[in-house]
Automatic annotation (TrEMBL):
A GO term for molecular function: protein serine/threonine kinase activity
Residue numbers binding ATP: K144
Gene: LOC106779271
Domain Protein kinase: 116-375
Pfam families per record: PK_Tyr_Ser-Thr (PF07714)
Protein name (database record): Calcium/calmodulin-regulated receptor-like kinase 2
Gene3D superfamilies cross-referenced by the UniProt entry: Phosphorylase Kinase, domain 1, Transferase(Phosphotransferase) domain 1
Family: Belongs to the protein kinase superfamily.
Transmembrane segments: 7-30
Length: 424
């Protein structure tokens, strides 16, 4: 016969087991629900972002623009996926592509390892510290770690990831990944080995050639053209400046920091004055009305930085206004490193574009598409002139060689006549 105490023990044990089972079911049930709702939220975000259209026509005559636009959007995502050879599309790895258009999501540990425990500092910005990192694929990237005291909130950080994730162009510094882990927020960008335009203009370096400057200003205008005329809704950078233009290994320029700490989707809302002193459109300062034309103003300032190597904080505008009084006024404020090494007519043409961009009235400033066309024309004319110069140099050389040959022939025939006379 079963004793009464045994019955009690069996009853208590069964009760306990049942209790544990029910608690487990509740615990896992809650976790599943949480995961599911997070997943649904993410999917909703993804679809809302990936369906944001990118305009591919009506971009003026900027020749390679729409092609590069289409291909850059289509290929950069799949390339970044393909490039990660260590990475396979398995259900566990699905999380890596949680962001809008497939930019990679990294763990804090991965970032820590790739930056050798955050010892490879590239620089310091208002957002936080930037480190050089080598990813497991061998790809070198720049990693921006949001400072813990940064005003940039969680929500804005995610907006940036979703916004930058959909913007891809050869003249923008692309966002290739991000990390939200262990209370840290990190952005992973393409690495730009030649640093910022500001460093190249104002640093100790030997200086940029006129050819390089023309290519840089055209690259910048193409980057802005994509933001203003390629993206829907248009994206206003709001902080264009030489410090935010980065250069890659072949000195091609890319616009950086777009939207990092600025609300930039054009929605007509007034979200407070944002930008950098010296680059900010005076019309925007006085009216608080934000349009793409404010970026054109800042671009105009960069044009004159490239011509003069005078920083806007060193009275650049005063020099520029004085120079505007004469046809050749700009010659007086030309960067010393360019004197005698550039075509002054081209400098004046570029300065003319710069002046148009700085027009007091935003409506009278050219669109970025027009700016790109003006600069392209200067480059094309330059190219033609250089080719003609080369041809005429080659033909001069040829005529000199021919005349030397003729002289030689005369000399030879003269010598043979002399030797004949001597024999006779
Ligand atoms: N993608 C990159 N590749 C290489 N270097 C970079 C990259 N991004 C930033 N840097 C370097 O890191 C430094 C800090 O950059 P960051 O963009 O954070 O600040 P900033 O633009 O100089 O200033 P702010 O954030 O105040 O506008 C700069 O000197 C820049 O040269």
């Amino acid at each position: 016969m079963v004793r009464q105490t045994d019955l009690v023990i069996i009853g208590v044990s069964a009760g306990l087991a049942l209790g544990i089972l029910i608690s487990c079911l509740i615990f896992f049930g809650i976790r599943w629900c949480k995961k599911r709702s997070a997943h649904l939220r993410l999917s909703a975000n993804e679809s809302s972002v990936t369906t944001l259209p990118i305009r591919t026509n009506g971009l003026g005559t900027s020749t390679d623009f729409s092609a590069s636009l289409n291909s850059s959007i289509a290929t950069s995502r799949s390339e970044s996926i393909k490039k990660s050879s260590h990475f396979s599309w398995s259900p566990q790895n699905k999380d890596r592509f949680a962001s809008a258009s497939g930019i990679l999501k990294y763990s804090y540990k991965e970032i820590q390892k790739s930056t050798q425990n955050f010892t490879t500092t590239l620089g310091q910005g208002s957002f936080g510290t930037v480190y050089k990192a080598t990813m497991p694929t061998g790809e070198v990237v720049a990693v921006k770690v949001l400072a813990p005291n940064s005003k940039q909130g969680e929500k804005e950080f995610h907006t940036e990831v979703f916004l930058l994730g959909r913007l891809h162009h050869r003249n923008l510094v692309n966002l290739v990944g991000y990390c939200v882990d262990k209370g840290q927020r990190i952005l992973v960008y393409q690495y730009m080995s030649n640093g910022s335009l500001a460093n190249l203009l104002y640093g100790e370096e030997k200086g940029l050639s006129w050819d390089e400057r023309l290519q840089i200003v055209l690259d910048i205008s193409h980057g802005i053209e994509y933001l203003h005329e390629g993206a829907i809704p248009p994206v206003i950078h709001r902080d264009l400046k030489s410090a935010n233009i980065l250069l890659d290994h072949s000195m091609r320029a890319k616009v950086a920091d777009f939207g990092l700490s600025k609300e930039e989707i054009f929605d007509g809302r007034n979200s407070g004055l944002k930008g950098t002193y010296g680059y900010m459109d005076p019309a925007y300062i006085s009216t608080s009305k934000l349009t793409t034309q404010s970026d054109i103003y800042s671009f105009g300032i960069i044009v004159f930085e490239l011509i003069t190597a005078i920083h806007p904080h060193q009275n650049l505008m005063e020099y520029v206004n004085l120079a505007a009084m004469d046809h050749d006024g700009i010659d007086e404020i030309l960067d010393k490193k360019l004197v005698g090494k550039c075509n002054l007519e081209e400098v004046r043409q570029l300065a003319k574009i710069g002046h148009k961009c700085l027009h007091k009235s935003p409506k009278k400033r050219p669109s970025i598409g027009e700016v790109s066309q003006f600069i392209s024309r200067i480059k094309q004319r330059r190219q033609r002139r250089l080719t003609e110069d080369n041809l005429s140099f080659a033909s001069n050389n040829f005529s000199r060689a021919v005349s030397r040959l003729e002289d030689r022939q005369v000399e030879l025939s003269r010598m043979s006549t002399i030797s004949l006379t001597e024999t006779v």
